[in-house]
Design goal:
The chain has 15 helices and 5 strands. With 306 residues, the chain is an alpha+beta fold. A 5-stranded antiparallel sheet has the order 2-1-5-4-3, sandwiched between helices. A hairpin with a 5-residue loop joins strand 1 and strand 2. Helix 2 packs across helix 3. The longest helix is centred in the middle third of the chain and has 18 residues. The chain is elongated. 35% of the residues are buried. About 4% of the residues have low confidence.
Length: 306
Amino acid sequence: MDERREPVPEPTGAALDRRAELSEFLRTRRARLKPEDVGLPDFGRHRRVPGLRREELAQLAGVSVAYYTRLEQGNGQNVSAEVLDAIARALRLTDAEHAHLTHLAKPKQLKRKTGGRPQQVRGSLLQLLDTMEGCPAYISGRRSDILAWNRMAAAVFGDWAQLPPQERNWARLVFLRPEYRELFVEWDQKATDMVSFLRMDAGCHPDDPRLSALVGELSVKSEEFRRLWATHDVKEKGYGVKRLHHPLVGDLTLHFESFRLPDESEQMLITYHAEPGSPSAEALRLLASWGTDATRAGQDWAAPQA
């Protein structure tokens, strides 16, 4: 059986508390704003908590204080899209934060039906990955599970085939495996992004027991994850530049792109490439020329640890 095709089992367990998630998200977004940020006077009175008061936020959104208070207490039932839009504008939410707020306040019941279905990758997508010979690429799914990858991804990021399926998860790799702290030059930014992606996923799938179990495990094992999770920041996967320090070829500067797959909205194709003619491009060519030797050399730092 192709190990890249092996589905990850879906355990049963408790789900995240959607009402608590909604409450904390609104509270943390309100806390980061000051009166002067939104054109309100600040009379210098002592504030018991940082940021805007509830009544100030309600005024900006054009709703009653009682209505907003109920929403911030986690009661999003019957809230309209227009009110959510007004609150998002008042809180100056990003597009990702606005979508997250909508998911928490008005969850789609369809997501419940797909929560227990194992994640699988179409055979044609596995073939596509294999044709991308000089480009590290992989497919990620819900909770940032790593579902499939090509030979170059294994050469750059480590041989994930050596890991049990349930361990092929970016959050686990970033927070629980020290070799990935060495791999990512800006590890702090990678960790922040990773938690923001998980938060976004939690808003779409608050009833996912496997996500809840993952968050619980990482919160126990990693103080850094626990601190970042408490910020309630959210972010969509996008594009950018990653700087790596590879154990075999040294420093790499790679551009990455994220493509959401059609008919598989929970799966994304992530590709990396180097600037043509750059030292990083030469390093990738070197890894490609080593073939399975490069992948085999990476087994020591991407294999299960005792």
